[in-house]
Amino acid sequence: MSIRKAVFPAGRRALYERNRYSPAIRSNGFLFVSGQVGSREDGSPEPDLDSQVRLAFENLNAILAAAGCSFKDVIDVTVFIVDPETRFDTIWKVLPEYWGEAPYPTLTGIGVTWLYGFQFEIKVIAKLPEAIAS
């Protein structure tokens, strides 16, 4: 049986406990990160789409750092976009700032109709560095 160890970024723990899920789980050398959105400290969406995507990546990077890794360790990405036909270009202009160098992680993009007031969500799986994989 694999052991699940929750990973929490600094602050914001109450949000996860209130909603009854972990921001990330470390298991068998991998880190499984829950979908991250561009939420402000109070949990509300950042209204500007460009800023919302950047904040989602900042929130994601805080979780990755809390687990001892970075976006360079990400192997699989899933993004959810409300109305991708009108928002895709704005979102994809921001990604290179966070994506890093090739080889890039795998990617699945999903168009959705609702994200609890958000327009973008990113979920990842990362391979933990060997020194912290257990």
From TrEMBL:
Q: Which domain of life is it from?
A: Bacteria
Q: Which CDD domains match?
A: YjgH_like
Q: Supply the Gene3D superfamilies for this chain.
A: RutC-like (3.30.1330.40)
Q: InterPro entries per the record?
A: RutC-like_sf (IPR035959), YjgF/YER057c/UK114 (IPR006175), YjgH-like (IPR038743)
Any single Pfam family the record assigns to this protein = Ribonuc_L-PSP
The protein's name? RidA family protein
